[in-house]
Amino acid sequence: MSHPDRINRTARGTLAATTLGFFGGFAGVSIVGPLAPRFAELLHLSPVIAALLAATPNLTGSLLRIPFGALYDRLGGRRPFLFLLAVTSVAVLGLLVLLHARYPDHLAGSLPLLFLLAALAGFGVATFSVGVGQIAGWHSADRQGRALGIYAGLGNLGPALSALLLPIAVTSLGIVGGYGIWLVILVVLTVLYALFARDAARIGSPVRAASSALLCAASRRTTWMLVSGYFISFGGFLGLTAWLPSYWHAMYGLSLRESGILTASFAATAALARVPGGILADRLASHAVLLTANAGLVGGIAVLCWSSSLPLSLGATLIVAAAMGVQNAWIFRTLPMCAPDAVGSAAGWVGGLGALGGFALPPLVGWVTSLVGGRTGYAQGFLPIAAAAALVLPALLRLASHVSGRRVGLITSQFPPESGARGPSLGLRRLMAEPSLQQLQERDIDVPR
C-alpha cells in the first residue's frame, strides 16, 4: 500500500472511530433526562430540582469543552478523548451499581450522589471539541466541512437515540438491564476509538500550555463571532429540544410520548443536517450558506408563531432544525481557517460557550410564553430565538467576508495575472476550497493570526 493510501485509510479510520466515540460520549447528556420523572417521583423532587438533575450532564460537558479543547492543542486528541470516555464509563458504572443496590425502595438520600454521577457523565460531552481538532488535522481545508459534518451530525444523534431507546430498554429489561446495555455499548465504542483513532502529525510549533492556547484563540475576534453564531444555532437546538415537549403538549394536547417522538424528529433532523451542511460549506460561498440557513431559521419560527395547524407547525420545526444544523456545520467548517494554530482551543470556546445558549434561551422563551399567555403564548414564545438570530447575523456575514477575502487573496497570489499562466481557471474552479495550512506554508504565504 502506498504512503498516500495509508494516510487516507488512517484518516477514514480516525473519522469513523472519533464519530463513534463522540456518539457514545454525547449520549451521556441523556443519562438522567428520560427517567427524570421516575427519579422525581421516588425522591419527591420539585420540578426545578428534577430539571437541574437532568441538565447537569449538559452543563458540565459544555463547560469542559473549553479546557479539553485546549488540551488537544498541547497533547493531541487520543489521550484527552480516551480520558473523557473513561470518566463517562465510570459514571455509568457508578449509576448502575447505585441502582442495583438501592432502586427503587432505598434511593432516599441518594440525590447528591446522583448529581455527582450526572456531572461525571457529562465529561463525554466534552469529547466534541477534542474530536474537532483531531479530525481537522487529517483533512485538507477543502474537505474539512464534509468530515466535520459527518462527525458532528452522526455524533449528535447520540442523545436523541438515547432518549428514545433508553426508556424502551428499561421497560423491557428493567432499569439495571437498560443502563447495563448502555455501559456495554459505551465500553465497546471506547475500545474502537482506542484501536483506530490516530493523531495527525502536528504542523508548526505546538502551543506550550493549555492556558496559552486558550488565550491565543480568545484573542481573535473571529472566535467570538463564531461563539455568537453557535450560541444561536447549537444553543437554540439544545433549548428547543428541551422546550418542544412542553410546546407540543400545551399547544396541541399531545401525550408526553407523542410529544417526545416529535421532539426526537426535530433533534434527529438538526443532527443529520450537519452532514449536507458541511458539504455545502465546502462547495458554496459562505454568504449563500449563511443567508439560506438564517432564512430557514427565521422563516420557520415565523410560521410557528402564527400557526395553529399541527402538520404546519411540525414542518416548520423541521425547517428550523435543518437550518440550525446547516449553520452549525458552517461554523465548524470555518473555525480551522480562523484559528489554524489553535483549533482545539477555538473549538472549546465555541462549543462550550455556544452550548450555553441551551440554558439561556429557554427562560426567554418561557418568559414570553407567560407574558402573552394561553396557547398564543406558546406559539409566540419562539420570537426571542428569531430576534437573537437576526442580531447575530451581521457579525457572521462580516466573518464570511473575511474568509472569502482570504480565499481570493490566496488564489491571486498563487496565479498572478501577469504570469500568463493558465492557472486562474483552476483557481476560479477552486475558489471555495481553502488551502490547508501545510500548503500555505509550502507556498511561503503568511497565515493571518
TrEMBL record:
Q: What is its main location?
A: membrane
InterPro entries reported in the protein's UniProt record: MFS, MFS_dom, MFS_trans_sf, NO3_transporter
- Coiled-coil segments on the chain, per record: none
Instruction: Classify the protein's membrane topology as the record does.
Output: Multi-pass membrane protein
Q: Name one GO biological process term.
A: nitrate assimilation
Matching Pfam families: MFS_1
**Highest taxon above the source species:** Bacteria
Q: Enumerate the UniProt keywords alphabetically.
A: Membrane, Nitrate assimilation, Transmembrane, Transmembrane helix
- A GO CC annotation given for this chain: plasma membrane
* Assigned protein family: Belongs to the major facilitator superfamily. Nitrate/nitrite porter (TC 2.A.1.8) family.
Q: What is this protein identified as?
A: Major facilitator superfamily MFS_1
Q: Which organism is this entry from?
A: Acidothermus cellulolyticus (strain ATCC 43068 / DSM 8971 / 11B)
